[in-house]
Amino acid sequence: MKKLLIPLIAIFALTATANAQDKMSKKGHHSKHQKGMMAKQLNFSEDQKKQAKAINEDSRKKMQELNKNESITVKVQRDRKAAILKERKTKMDGLLTAEQKTKMAQLKAERKVKKEEGYAKRLDKMKTNLSLTDEQVAKLKTQRAATMARAEKIKNNESLSREQKKEQMMALKTEAKDQHSKIFTPEQLKKKEEMKKSRGDRSRVKK
Questions:
Q1: Does pLDDT of 117 surpass 80?
Q2: How far does CA 79 lie from the centroid of its chain?
């Protein structure tokens, strides 16, 4: 039995590692794609592209050196990482012309509009599938607006460390989920879970 367990544990460990690496790879690829799209949308000059590449490379090297430093505490390492990211953002912002900054603000506003349109569609679908009342829909909208306002406040609070922001965001997410659930009736919550499970099953079948 023990002989069988050892290779099984090894397989699970390798699978978990492979999955984690795959997620990190996808996340890095997505981030790189976003940066490329942003440079294209803002019409970066060749000089800006070179400077942006140099800034990213400098930031990457600083992160690598920081990760090698085992003589500092986890908190100090987190704070220094946050400082490196802040420095990178400041340098990147400094590359932009006034027109590009205006364009970036416009692109952000457009993404926000699309996000709101997507939420409105999901809410309409939820209203139909769960037979929500107009009062429930209004409560969901009000609760979401309040949660987003608090999230934005946490995000823009410069007195908080990156870790503190993360902790407060997680707490806000949990609180919002609890408030969200209270808006539904027990029957609606049950149906909502069944629909969620059904979507998960269909997703596994496709894979």
A1: yes
A2: 20
Asked whether the beta carbons of 125 and 195 are under 8 A apart, the reply is: no
CB atoms within 10 A of CB 47: 9
The C-alpha atoms of residue 105 and residue 43 are separated, in whole angstroms, by: 14
Q: Sign of dihedral through CA atoms 204, 21, 40, 93? A: positive
List of residues 6+ apart from 139 with CB closer than 8 A: 183
Alpha helix (H) residue ranges in 69-161: 74-95, 98-130, 134-155
User: What gap in Å lies between CA 125 and CA 196, rounded to an integer?
Assistant: 14
Least confident of 1-5, 54-58, 202-206: 1-5
Its pTM stands at 0.61
Q: Is 78:163 a contact under the CB 8 Å cutoff?
A: yes
Please provide residue 142's backbone torsions phi and psi, each rounded to the nearest 5 degrees. Answer: -65, -45
- Residues near 56 by beta carbon (within 8 Å), at least 6 away in sequence: 35, 88
End-to-end CA distance of the chain: 32
**How many Å apart are CA 85 and CA 79, to the nearest integer?**
10
Going by C-alpha positions, the residue among 109, 108, 86, 105 that lies closest to residue 97 is 105
